[in-house]
Structures are given as structure tokens and as C-alpha cells.
Amino acid sequence: MEVLTQSQKDSYARDGYLLLERRLSSTQLSALHGEIDRYVAQAQGLTASTAELDLEETHRPDAPRVRRIKLPHTHSEIFRALMLSDTILAPARDLLGPDLRLHTTKLNMKEAGHGAAVEWHQDMAFYPHSNDAVLAIGVLLDDMGPENGPLQVIPGSHLGPTYDHHADGHFVGAVDPEALGIDMARAVALMGPAGSISIHHGRILHGSALNTSTKPRRILFYEMMAADAWPIMGSMTKFEDLADYDARMLCGQSRQPRLSDWPVRIPLPAPPVGKTIYEIQKGLTARAFETAKD
């Protein structure tokens, strides 16, 4: 164990999540905030999303609203350096072992008063793998309270079924928890001061509401898995070839795929439109969270 205690590891195994407070310094946070400001400035004048920026539906060229910076580790040295640091990798190694492969990165942004909700879902419904040693590390870039749309999880749901994320004959990347009979009173909001880190299992049911506060809510996600977890055919995991896949190793070495018994679902038929979760989830008619009005 590098940074976690055995108690924390046991808690993660039981509940499917952890919150580690104040893991980044004020200097690190300032640098990350500066990078975000640089990207938001690039959204000025845009009329549509780009390869790097996903825009809010309420975005205007003269009033830019960015809801996601896509794959920030590929075009920002600051975000890449943090990804490769022990701040991120040490707790992941404690939970998954020494050999880690990157799945993807994203910076989800909920600006004050309008930040988009994300409906309830399980990450591994999007990208099933040969085993479920998969997690997402979220870096809280702002103070996270109940009013600015914190990530919410259902403790222990990573040990249960993989729910059907389909509607009208295709994958919509979301579920209706009420229809599934899930007791939403059990939901836990992962809140804490800026610079904290959340970790959630790839199978845990989670979502987040609108940001109705006067404060932003920005989380930088690094999604990764044990190197012996390999994508199953039909997964939304994308890579060009084996060299590209090997290049995603974060630490350790690539290992022989390991199979485990977990309730796999495949995200097919593919959604008819959309590449981001925000667009894909429009196919869900029974929404758990309100949407932005303007």
C-alpha cells in the first residue's frame, strides 16, 4: 500500500467509492484553473463543439459555456503531468495493482447556474472489459457542496447487476432508477474542498444534478483499469491498433487478459446520434434530473 490504508481499501471494496480530501496544493489548483481559463477563452466565438471542447446547449458565441474539455491529457502538459503523478497513480495502484492502463480523460464543467446534469449510469455499461478492475479518479477543482451538482453514487451498487442502459431499441447510456426500484435515499454525494480526489468503481451507479449555485463545479476525470482488463467486442473503448493500446500504459507492463465473472452488457445497438454522454443520454425519456432552461 502506497497511500491508502487497509481500512480505505476495504471501504472501497464494500461501497465502491472513496473520497480523499485535500490531495492537491493551492499552487497545483491555481495552475489547473489557469488551464481551464485558457480553454474557455478558446470557446469565445465558437458556434459548435470542437475536437477539444464540448459546448453547453445554452452556449452562445458571445457568452461561451463549456461543459467538457475532451481528452485534456492529449493537448495539455499540465493535465498530463498530473495524470502521471503519484497523486493520481498511487491510490489507483493500491486498489488495482501495479500495472495500469489509461482508458480516457475528460474535464466535466458545470458553470454556475446552468451546468448540465448527467443521468444515472454505470461506466462499464459503456465499455465492458474482461474483468471489472476498472475505476475513475475525479479531481475536484472547486469546493463541492450539495448545491453545485456533486457526483452522487449508490453505495454497493458495483456489486450488483449491470443495468440495461437501452431505450427504444438502442443504447442511451442511462437508466431510470425509479423504474428499477432503487432507493435513492441511499445516494451519497461526494463532496469536499477543492483539491480533493474521488475514486469510483466502474460498475457503481452514479450521476449528478444541475449546478443551481453561484459557484462552478469542475471535475477532472482520469479513467483507468488494471492492465489485464481488456475491452470486450462491442465496447465503446476505441484504439487504432496494439501499439496504440500499449501506448496507454500508465505504469507497469501489459499483461495477459484476465477473465472474471461479472454481469456484462454490451452498448449495442449504438445510439443513433451523439458521441458524448450528454448527447447519448438524450435518448432517455424518463429523466431523473432537471435540464437547463436557458
From TrEMBL:
Under InterPro entries, the record lists: Phytyl_CoA_dOase-like
Note the Pfam families from the entry: PhyH (PF05721)
Question: Could you name the domain of life of the organism this protein comes from?
Answer: Bacteria
Q: What is this protein called?
A: Ectoine hydroxylase
Q: Which organism does this record belong to?
A: Jannaschia pagri
- In the UniProt record, the gene name given for this protein reads thpD
